[in-house]
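Training component of the fellowship. As part of building independent skills, the fellow (R.M.) carried out the full modelling exercise for a liganded target. The chosen ligand was calcium ion. The inputs are recorded below so that the supervisory panel can assess the work.
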Amino acid sequence: MEQQALLVRMHEIDNVAVVATRGGLPAGQRLDDGLVLREAVPQGHKVALRTIEAEAQVLRYGVAIGYALQRIEAGAWVHEGTMRMPEARALQNLPVATELRTAPPIEGLSFLGYRNADGSVGTRNLLAITTTVQCVAGVVEHAVARIRRELLPRFPHVDDVVALEHGYGCGVAIDAPDAHIPIRTLRNLSLNPNFGGEVMVVSLGCEKLQPEKLLPAGSIPLVDERAVADVGASAEACVPVVRLQDPAHGGFNGMLDAILRQAELHLQRLDARRRETVPASGLVVGIQCGGSDALSGVTANPALGRAVDMLVRAGATVLFSEVTEVRDGVALLTARARDHAVAERLVAELEWYDAYLRRGGADRSANTTPGNKKGGLSNIVEKAMGSIVKSGTLPIDFVLGPGERLGPGQRGLGFAATPASDFICGTLQAAAGMNVHVFTTGRGTPYGLAAVPVIKLATRSELAEQWPDLIDVDAGRIARGACSLDDVAREILDCILDVASGRRRRWAEHWGLHNAFTIFNPAPVT
Ligand code: CA
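Fellow's submitted model of the complex:
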C-alpha cells in the first residue's frame, strides 16, 4: 500500500518542501497536488515543488538557502549536491524593520504565579543562596542539605532551596573589560523571579568578587529593607552576607549554623507567599535547542515558533538565543527588528561575538556535519533557518547582551545573545529573568535546571518512545501525520501554562535533573 505523503512547506513562496514521512518516500509517489516524485526522497530531505532553473534560488523558510547548480525538475530530490551555498552574510547593509508582521492580541490567557515586588512573577517559590566564589561551594552544599532536612519541613509553601554555585569569583581578571559579563550574570541570577526577591549571599572573605562588587548598593531594584534591618547588612552591600572567614563563626559547624540562621529569615517570608491568577504578561519563556537533527526545523522548532507567536500575542515575553546558530540568518532577524535601534543592538551583539570567536582563533564553525547533511540539512544557512524558526514570525522587540536582565518596558519577543552551549544559554536566560524554559531536542538530552522548570520537546517520535520518562512533548507526531503544527503549538502553550502554574511537574523537575549553572566568562583567568 502506498504510504501517505507528508510534506512540510515552511513559507508560501518556498519552492521546496521537506518529506516528513517516516522512512521517506519512494520514486513515483503521487503528492497531494498531483506532483509525482521523480526519485526516492529520504525523510528530512527536500523535494522541488516546481521546476527550479539553473542559478535560481532554492527557497525554504521564505529565504534562499542556495542556488541551483543546474535545472532541477519538479518532483526531484534537492540536496547539497544540487545547489550552491549563499555567501556568508556580512553585517552591513542589512534590511531593517522590513518584515513587521502584525497579529491580533490573544486576550484572557492567565496562569497562577507568585507576584514579586519588582513586578516580575515567579513560577516556583525557591530560596536561592548566592555565592561570590567557588571556595564556599562545599560548605554551602552541606548547608543546603541541612536546610532541606531541618528547615523546609517547617515551611511547606517553599518548593526548595537552590545554591547558586559557580566557578567564578577569584583567580580571574576581575577588572578586565569583559568581566562585567560573568559579574552581571551572577547578580541577575540572584534576582531570578523564582527566588522572590529574597537575596542572601555566602562569601568567603578574601575573594576578588567581594559582595559589594557583586551586589553594590543601588544595583538591586528590589532591595529588601526588612532583610537589611533583620540582620544588619554591611553598609556597602544591600543584602545580608554570611562571610565564612568571619572569626565569629568558628569552624565548619559554626559556618553552617550562621547560614541556616540567615536562611530561616528568608524562608519565613517566602513561606507566606501564595500563587495568584496573573495575566500571561508575567511569563518569561526562554527557548533553545540542543542535540538538533534534521527534523528540528520540521517538527519541534516550527511548532514551538507557532506557540511563541501565540505567547507574544497573549502578552508574554519570549527569549530566543544561541548566536552561532542564528548568525547566518541575521538578515531575517534585522528585517524583523522593531526599529533601527533594535537592529543596531542586534548587529552589535553579533559583531562582539564574531570578535570573541576570532580572538580564540575560531569562527562560527560554519560547516554542517556529515550527519546534518545525511539528515537533509544542506548547509549552515538552512541549519540556521531551522533554528531561527522557533522564534516565530513576529517583530523582535528588544535585545539583551549576555547576562543582562530584562529592563522596564522590555516585553514581547527578545533576542538574548548567548552562546549555543545548552547550559550556558540556560544560565544566561535564567539571568535575564526566564521563569519557564522550553527545550527542543533531536538526539536527546536529559537537560534540566534547579531554578526554572524545563519542558522538553522531541523532534521525532523514536526519541519520545525511547525516553518516555524524559520527553514531555512528542513533536515527531507531526512527521507521522498524527497531528498538525498548530495542534502541537497549542499543546506546548497549554503545557507552559500548566507548568508555570505548578499544576503539573514535567519530567526534568519530577526526577530532579539539574544541570549546573555555567557562567560565560570571556575575560582572562589569572
Ligand atoms: Ca543550545
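The panel noted the following from the submitted structure. The pocket of calcium ion is lined by residues 288-290, 322, 420, 422, 425 (CB under 6 Å). The chain has three domains: 1-87, 111-271, 284-511.
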